[in-house]
Specification:
This protein is of the alpha/beta class. It has one domain: Purple Acid Phosphatase, chain A, domain 2, CATH 3.60.21.70. It is built from 6 helices and 13 strands. It has helices at residues 27-39, 58-68, 97-108, 155-159, 168-194, 222-233, and strands at 11-17, 45-47, 74-77, 116-117, 124-125, 139-143, 146-150, 199-203, 238-243, 250-252, 267-271, 278-286, 291-300. A 7-stranded mixed beta sheet has the order 5-6-7-8-9-11-10, covered by helices on one side.
């Protein structure tokens, strides 16, 4: 791939990747992504979840953690459904999802309040709040007049889909995690509003169905999306939602006012690549004008095997 262009004055950039690598033959392309990102001028690299397809073993967790730590940038990661919520499937190893979630937190968030990667970055973790102490993966940080936050909202209906052996504890986990995400989002907007920041950037894994809500298939996200709409309407700055899950590169404006049906002009959605496409997106932010200046796709050719 050609080198990324120099950043314009008064701007900064970060990288976005998700939903990969899944298969053995994607590992070479994933390595190219890491090498390409290491050559780019980035403030951090964001993985929006689904670091694997199968199996959900500690060994694979360790491999992905090792590989992401090859990046010289701070790495921010919010989990996807593949690495814990769907691990009950036979192909994944028939693990208990809540067991995998516990191991995932221990592996990827050993030092709550700091990123991993080649350069540590201090972040605020929701785990510092005694009411949400389990949610160390929900983090927030400020840069260039923008406030950034991750929220643990995954695919597979936000981990609400039925499976053999599902228990009340699995249902309780969904409810608690969604409450935490809602509280974290509301607090993020309160801070941005009170400090007069230029924008808010939110990152989750699951596709919340912004084009179709309140469709039944997206029912587990409806309350969250409706609250997002209200918060965006009440905020003067720009809002960017980044997610994965549907494996299609998209940059659009799908969030609408429920009353008028009109798109909210200060809202943008970025959905990143996903397997079998292995690539990342460089997001360029104009910190002077307070806008998202560019979304630059960095796709690795499928012919690359190593």
């Amino acid at each position: 791939m050609p080198a990324t262009a120099p950043l314009p004055p008064g701007s900064f950039a970060f990288g976005v990747f998700g939903d990969g690598p899944y298969r053995a033959w994607e590992m070479g392309r994933f390595q190219r992504v890491l090498e390409d990102a290491n050559q780019a001028d980035l403030q951090w690299f964001l993985h929006v979840g689904d670091i694997l397809w199968y199996p959900c073993s500690n060994e694979v967790f360790g491999d992905r953690f090792y590989r992401l730590n090859q990046l010289r940038h701070p790495v921010i990661y919010t989990p996807g459904d593949n690495e814990w919520a769907d691990c009950h499937e036979a192909i994944a190893g028939r693990y208990q999802p809540l067991d995998r979630l516990q191991h995932l937190r221990a592996r990827f968030f050993p030092n709550p309040g700091t990123s991993f990667g080649g350069r540590a970055m201090v972040v605020t973790t929701q785990g510092q709040d005694s009411a949400f102490s389990a949610f160390v993966e929900n983090v927030r940080w400020q840069f260039g007049g923008f406030l950034f936050a991750t929220m643990h909202m995954v695919g597979s209906g936000n981990a609400s889909r039925p499976f053999e052996g599902r228990t009340a504890a699995d249902d309780a986990e969904v409810a608690a995690r969604t409450r935490a995400a809602m509280a974290w989002m509301e607090e993020t907007f309160r801070i941005a509003q009170s400090e007069g920041l230029k924008g808010v950037v939110l990152a989750i894994h699951g596709d919340p169905g912004l084009e179709d809500y309140p469709a039944e298939v997206y029912a587990s996200y409806t309350t969250w999306v409706q609250r997002l709409e209200e918060l965006v309407k009440g905020f003067e700055g720009q809002v960017l939602l980044i997610h994965g899950d549907s494996h299609e590169l998209l940059t659009d404006h799908p969030l609408r006012d429920r009353v008028t049906g009109q798109p909210l002009s200060n809202f943008t959605r970025l959905e990143t690549y996903g397997s079998p496409d292995i690539g990342w997106v460089r997001v360029v932010v104009d910190s002077v004008a307070g806008r998202f200046a560019a979304f630059e796709p960095r796709l690795v050719s499928r012919w690359v095997l190593w």
